[in-house]
Amino acid sequence: METFLKIDDLSVGYWTRRGKVGALVGIRLEMSEGETLGIVGETGCGKSTLGKAILGILPPLTEIQGHIFFRGRDLPRLGLEEYRRLRAKEIALIFQDPMTRLNPLMRIENHFVEEILAHESVSKAEARSRAREALLSMGIHESRIRNYPHEFSGGMRQRIMIALALVLKPSLLIADEPTTSLDVIVESQILEILQDLKRVYHMSLQLITHNMGIVAEICDRVAVLYAGKLVELGSAHDVFHKPLHPYTQGLLASIIHLDTKELHSIEGSPPDLISPPSGCRFHPRCPYAQQICVEKEPPLVEFQKGHLAACHFGDTFL
Amino acid sequence: MIELTQSGDTESSEILRVENLQVHFPVKIPLLQRIVQREKAVVHAVDGVSFVLQTGEIMGLVGESGCGKTTVGRAVVRLIEPTGGKVIFEDRNIAKAKGGTIRALRREMQIIFQDPHASLNPAMRIGDAIGHPLWIHRSGSQSRASFRREARENVLSMMREVGLTPEEQLYDKYPGDLSGGQKQRAVIARAIILEPKLLVVDEGVAMLDMSIRAKILELMLDLKRKHAMTYLFITHDLATAKFICDRIAIMYLGRIVEIGPSKEIYADPKHPYTKALLSVIPVPDPDKRKEKILPRGEVPDAVNLPLGCRFHPRCPAVLSSCGWEGRDFLDLLDEHLSDPKRAGADETILGPIEDWWAKGLVAGRKTGPADAAKITERIRAILAEGPAAMVQAVGTVGLQGKNVIIEFRGPDTLAQTQVGERIVECLLYQN
Amino acid sequence: MGQDIQQQRIITKILGKPVRYVRSLFRPLVRERRTLPGILSWIGLVMLLGFIFIGIFAPVLVPIQQTNALAYPILLPPNAQHWMGTDGIGRDVFARVIWGARTSLTIMAIGALLALIVGFPIGLFSGYVGGWVDRALVLVMDSVYAFPGLLLAALIAAVIGKGIFNIGIAITVIYIPLYFRVTRSQTLSTREELYVEAARALGARSWTIMLRYIAFNVVIVIPVIFSLSAADTILTAAGLSYLGLGLEIDVPGDWGRDLSDAQKYLGSGIWWTSLFPGLMIILLTIGLSFLGEGLSDIINPLLRKERS
Fold first, then answer.
1. By CA distance, what is C24's nearest residue in B?
2. Model pLDDT, residue B424
3. In this structure, are strands B14-26 and A301-304 parallel, antiparallel, or unpaired?
4. What is the rounded distance in angstroms from the CA atom of residue B417 to the CA atom of residue B79?
5. Residue B121 and residue C306: Cβ atoms within 8 Å?
6. For residues C289 and C43, is the Cβ–Cβ distance under 8 A?
7. d(Cα A183, Cα A169) in Å, to the nearest integer?
8. ipTM of the complex, rounded to two decimals
9. Per residue in A227-261, is it b (16+ CB within 10 Å) or e — as a string?
10. In angstroms, what CA-CA distances link B128 with B140, B178, B190, C22?
11. What mean pLDDT do residues A275-303 have?
């Protein structure tokens, strides 16, 4: 059986005025059908780039190397038209700011009708009734279906975005910080909706976020990115209970939750991706760094079944 | 008249008292509409907020976006003028103070905004930015040159204190050259260089990465101890608030619904909204899933406020006396009609939702006498789908003139109730 | 010794701001030198510098006597001695063209600078203060703007008389609204920045906020409108001279008037008296437009980037 999604040695780089930024370097990652994978890391670690690379919406002139196999097809090598048909229909994306994808001059209903008609040959009436159904499933009522985007609150807009992303029943949903701009209660509501959807449609979900709390809540597996590299990958249980990479340990320790007794943080700040540190990219901030960390780049090693980390001393944390 | 000189009364440890603070913003409506509709629509951003800050304490002002917490902060430091109520800072009411008085007040109260990047002038060097308050509040007696030397020394020591090192190098940098954490440190340094007594921190760490948040919080706690400052800490994050606040005020739609010592509120929240807020904080452990109390729907807009308790349409513990009104029935009807499975033939009997109106306690639609009985019967059936408290609140359902109407009984008066050391605004705790 | 260092420090202090401003303008130019806007601006800059060089060193390049009437035989076609020939009253066209650069640049400098000196502060003030003051100023500026530029300049020139400085003033009046508008709109958006509110929270006075927090973030758009309006200035000045409302007759070089004088010979196949002054007008205008367009492409994305 072919893998649902297989990212093989993916590197993404783009040029800035100061030089080449290695936004992602040698990412290897697999996702199976129906799974929820959390992609976590700090600002600028490349997590959003990963989502955009899968959907093929990176800015022009971005250098992409490696493969992204989605149901056997190598995405970066797809033709433009083929890629267009794949988007929304099979892979959909929800952004952090819903206003960026909703056209302010278009009624909510028409967003749906347009999207359905772009991908399927159905009648307009059929498209409209499906729009209604999708919106209702997100708790948007009949009376508001013909409103404009600005007439909705942030949380409502995000629900509309989700409904829009799901109206074609994609098999993979990539959610890039879907709740970051929302309040805690609305965030919880959205997370609940996402979980329901997973159950009902057996959809795969890739959740890109910096919030470890919501990862713990809904993800099956977690991938931790640091400075463009995958540093740890494993089941949510393993990663949260037995983090093998010092960066993951630091991230987990710095979460402030209701039982926090003492504040922790990671020293320093993420490196400049134009000239990243030698060896392990985390070594300047790592409390356990040794000479080898400066000299040699640690490979991603499977320390336990299904639990990988890129640290020379991963086994000491087992 | 507002006295600017220090009042002699130092006995009282109360530094700030906010009494019945109101901030209303006019709603922007198109000119044509403004002519047609005479009533002025206002956003009730803050609508009767009272609290007291004791010297040296950290009070958290917690709530969702749009609850008015930021507006309270801005009104306290007088970046905006309150519509009503008092802001008493060190025994003088500054709610209506003007230009010069307000400027002088800035020495004693400062505010830190959420976005450190946007808070710094991109064309000003970090050192100049931190030292600028000194220049703004300079009194004329000293010579410029000696003042410049002193200010520079002062800035450098401030930079050391907030951890902006190496300070000599960073002094000449521009904000664009600094990381997010460093920028927030610079903003903090600028705010406290005049040694204010009160510091309003508006979401001071929300924009920062998790890994450096703790560092900034620790810095704030440190500085507070060292300089004997008082903080008003505005945040949406109850977990952070728990860690650093002595007292907490929970805000919802322009009002404080619960206020009291952190310990008490976190251990045993009383208001249903506080309970909901606490229940949704994620636990960073995939094996522990806690029971969540999710209020229905979303925060209503602050122009047409719900009747009675503002939280009643969403409240999981709602009573029949909480403020049910015509609009609430319309919401229920809309929900019912939107769902084809539930609606069945109701749309033909009840008509489209657009035909219905709601005014105060009453909701209804025009109808011929023939349909009235059928409609009344369906209305009762639909009401049964709603919250039990809502059904209990219904007064009459029936024909009135040419309209079928549903009229609710009015709400009980809501009052602030002392429960232990805290004050709650909820009918559940009123006798 | 110690005093020297002290003086040095004071000088850097005084010059620091402008020097840094100029440097901050050049940095993007250097960085963007391989992109189209970068190349355009460099071409424009080089052309402009060429003209400035010619203008400054005109007296060294060609003796002023060659621009006098009846210095040579009339209407000689271009030859080894007179590269661009001579005109209808026996002046060397090449010499006229060279001295014309001096004249044009002077008018340009006076016009654009005056417009900047007047338009920028008014725009800043109007945008920051807002309210009815702003509305009134916008109304005044808009009505000036709506008036056809050349006509307005001609009107003013006719009233205040000929001469380089007067032409400069006449042109200034047309371009003040342009500086005003751009400065005002930039001020309006800068005024809403959080750092401006932060400055208010620090207790800064309006003047301090305007000068230290807004002006320096607004001034970045000035080079763009300066280059663009300067190109226009040249055309307007030439237009005025062409209409006979421009400079005195004894100015040693005036492209617009020369062009105007030359047209009566065009019918008899005498092309050189009109081609060269016309070409100079086009070249200088193109150079300035390149610089202006290039700079606006470079600087605007920078502005956007700083916002995000």
1. B123
2. 94
3. unpaired
4. 31
5. no
6. no
7. 27
8. 0.86
9. bbbbbbbbbbbbbbeebbbbbbbbbbbbbbbeebe
10. 19, 15, 10, 20
11. 92
**CA–CA dist C91, C96 (Å, integer):** 7
Per the DSSP assignment, residues forming a β-bridge with A40 are: A209, A224
Domain ranges of chain A: 88-204
* pLDDT on residue A317: 87
Tokens of A299: 């490979």
* Structural domains present in chain B: 11-108+196-306 (3.40.50.300), 124-190 (no CATH), 326-408 (no CATH)
Give contacts of A237 with chain B, Cβ < 8 Å.
Answer: 286-287
pLDDT tens, chain B, 431 aa long: 333 334 444 445 899 999 999 999 987 766 666 666 666 778 899 999 999 999 999 999 999 888 899 999 999 999 999 999 999 999 899 999 988 899 989 999 999 998 899 999 888 889 999 999 999 998 877 888 889 999 999 999 999 999 998 889 999 888 888 888 899 999 999 999 999 999 999 988 888 888 888 889 999 999 999 998 999 999 988 999 998 999 999 999 999 999 999 999 999 999 999 999 999 888 888 888 778 888 888 888 888 899 999 999 999 999 999 999 999 999 888 888 887 777 777 777 888 888 888 988 999 888 776 677 888 888 888 888 888 899 999 988 888 888 888 999 989 999 999 998 999 999 999 87
What are the strands of the beta sheet with A204-209, ordered from one edge?
Answer: A91-94, A172-176, A204-209, A36-40, A221-226, A229-235, A307-309, A301-304
Chain B touching partners, 3 or more CB pairs below 8 A:
A, C
Report the run of H or E that residue A65 belongs to, with start and end: strand A63-70
User: Chain B partners of A236 at a C-beta cutoff of 8 Å?
Assistant: 286
Of A42, A184, A237, the CB nearest to B281: A184
Contact C227, C295 (CB under 8 A): yes
Report the distance separating Cα A268 and Cα A284, nearest Å: 8
Residue C193 and residue B102: Cβ atoms within 8 Å? no
C291, part of any domain: yes
Residue tagged 């521009």 (tokens): B174
Tell me which residue range forms the domain holding C43.
32-307
CB atoms B136 and C205 under 8 Å: yes
Alpha-carbon distance A237 to A246, whole Å?
A: 17
> How many angstroms separate the CA atoms of A180 and A210, rounded?
9
Write out the residues of chain C at the interface with chain B, using a CB-CB cutoff of 8 A: 193-195, 197-205, 208, 212-213, 216-217, 306
Classify residue C20: in a domain, yes or no.
no
Which among B107, B123, B187 has CB closest to C203? Answer: B107
Written as one letter, the residue type at C99 is W
**Tokens coding A249:** 């340990």
**C116, burial (CB in 10 Å: exposed 0-12, middle 13-18, buried 19+):** buried
First to last CA, chain B: 42
Q: Which CATH number fits domain A88-204: 3.40.640.10, 3.90.76.10, 3.40.50.300, 3.40.718.10?
A: 3.40.50.300
Touching check for B121 and chain C: CB below 8 Å? Answer: yes
CB B271 within 8 A of CB B424: yes
CATH number, position C109: 1.10.3720.10
